[in-house]
Specification:
single chain, seven-stranded mixed β-sheet, 10 helices, ten-stranded antiparallel β-sheet, 25 strands, about 30% strand, about 500 residues, alpha+beta
């Protein structure tokens, strides 16, 4: 009779212990059963990890806790359980209005975000399982903060086939606004995307993203502070060697600090990440068997649910062995894949390395410039952040062109030199400019800063000069207008990374 060493519930300070909890007889064909064991390393218990678990305890079991953020602010978390329904609310500093409220029953979850604290939700996320047992996720966002959702993303499926529908709220011919489909695509779940700028991976190669992932998951190692993440180790194909496991453990020990970085700019993503990595009931498994050229890692798309784990088996993250040779890149890649798994976010079809998953993983990895789409930490911060946190990444006053600006040029006619707002028809007759150069405040990723009541398009807009006319000619060239001052932007590396 052979003893199989499995999940250990005993930890020793500064060491590890694996304890047998069951026995298994020899195989029917006379061969011996392969040994397996789950080792829990008493590691990773820094201050960030202790805060992480204190928050998780409140979120799961009720109560309240106030935690510091890296920008000097605080977040107060209040949780309660009502007949199996878990409600958690997150407050900025001493505010009486929550910026995020979550409601969870089993695998079903709803999030409401009120970023500007005006009692009107700016964000909503719903996760449920439909009648066919397929995971359904819906994201709604009010991008111009006017009190009405104007973007909707629906994602059906997780592992297996994935359908993603993107819609925009649009008014047709003066009628009531209605949802207009911008894209509707069916994709293999969590397609591998090259993270290297000069990747050799070809989308037509059909490389199996999980090729090389070990079939035997019985030998694993876990950092005690992160029970939701297991490293598949041992001597089998695709399993991580002793040295590879050591490097992964070192990278995972940084994860609580990265989660705090994420919480400082994006409460909703941080909430999902922290819940997943501290829950040992639905873990993900990291192995070192990635084989696709140009692909650093691939993961099973989440968010983790009991039903999906029963239907498809354990969640997996397959890392290419060469990634483990770069400690900074490894930590960034792990955070990237864990965001896919914990939050269920898939890359866009035309992925260019600048979506929320890419940006958050770079920003919370010491604002690294590396990786596919990298190079602008302030923009990464802005793309990663919740609506109420984007300005903490900096801002910039930018110049852009506006078409159809006749009414706008008329509105500023008495504030701006008329020579800049009109076109010459004759020496004594003039017309309004049809295209003009305007300036406005934007986030560091280029998106305008919305102000719901401002004219003309929901953004603070300043008139600069005339670019074109339907009739006549421009009276004064924009080349004569002074450029914006250099101090008009705070989007710089220190502004974005000053608290990391």
């Amino acid at each position: 009779m052979h003893v199989i060493l499995r999940a250990a519930a005993v930890m020793l300070t500064g060491g590890l212990l694996a304890c047998p909890d069951s026995q298994q007889s020899d195989q029917p064909d006379g061969g011996a059963a392969a040994p397996g064991r789950h080792v829990i390393l008493d590691a990773g218990w820094g201050e960030a990890a202790q805060r992480l678990h204190a928050v998780a305890e409140v979120e799961r079991n009720g109560g309240s806790i106030t935690v510091p953020n890296r920008d000097g602010s605080t977040t107060r978390i209040v949780s309660r359980l009502d007949d199996g329904v878990r409600i958690v609310q997150y407050y900025n500093n001493q505010s009486s209005l929550p910026v995020l409220t979550t409601r969870s029953v089993g695998d079903d979850t709803t999030h409401w975000g009120d970023y500007d604290e005006d009692s009107r939700p700016d964000y909503r996320y719903d996760r449920s399982v439909d009648d066919a047992g397929v995971l359904l996720q819906v994201w709604l966002e009010d991008t111009d903060l006017d009190g009405e959702y104007d973007r909707r993303r629906t994602q059906r499926g997780a592992r297996g086939e994935l359908r993603v529908i993107r819609e925009r709220l649009t008014a047709f011919d003066g009628g009531s606004p209605a949802w207009r489909v911008e894209s509707d695509v069916v994709l293999p779940a969590n397609r591998p995307h090259p993270e290297e700028k000069a990747a050799t991976w070809n989308a037509d190669s059909q490389c199996d993203r999980m090729a090389g992932f070990p079939s035997d998951l019985r030998s694993t190692t876990t950092v005690a502070a992160l029970p939701g993440v297991r490293i598949v180790d041992g001597a089998g194909p695709g399993a991580c060697s002793v040295e590879q496991t050591r490097k992964l453990v070192a990278a995972l020990e940084q994860l609580p600090s990265k989660a705090e970085c994420l919480a400082a700019v994006n409460t909703k993503l941080a909430t999902m990440l922290k819940a997943a990595i501290t829950n040992g009931d639905i873990p993900t498994h990291i192995a070192c068997g990635g084989q696709c050229p140009g692909i650093r890692a691939s993961s099973d798309l989440g968010p983790p649910t009991v039903l999906d784990q029963l239907r498809f088996g354990p969640y997996r993250i397959n890392i290419a062995p060469y990634v483990l040779d770069d400690s900074v890149g490894l930590a960034r890649t792990i955070l990237h894949e864990l965001l896919h798994w914990s939050a269920g976010l898939e890359h866009d079809e035309d992925d260019n390395g600048t979506d929320q998953v890419w940006s958050c993983s770079r920003y919370c990895s010491s604002c690294t410039l590396g990786g596919f789409g990298g190079g602008d930490p302030a923009a990464d911060c802005s793309r990663c952040a919740d609506g109420n946190k984007r300005l903490t990444c900096g801002s910039k006053y930018v110049v852009t062109a506006m078409a159809g600006c006749e009414s706008f040029s008329a509105s500023v006619h008495y504030e701006v030199d008329p020579v800049l707002t009109t076109c010459r028809l004759t020496d004594t007759s003039f017309a309004r400019c049809s295209t003009c150069e305007v300036s406005h405040w934007s986030y560091c990723d280029g998106r305008p800063v919305p102000v719901p009541v401002s004219y003309p398009t929901g953004y603070i807009t300043g008139y600069r000069c005339c670019l074109g006319c339907h009739l006549g000619e421009v009276r004064r060239s924009c080349a004569t207008v002074p450029p914006l001052p250099l101090e008009a932007t705070t989007c710089s590396l220190p502004a974005a990374c000053g608290t990391l």
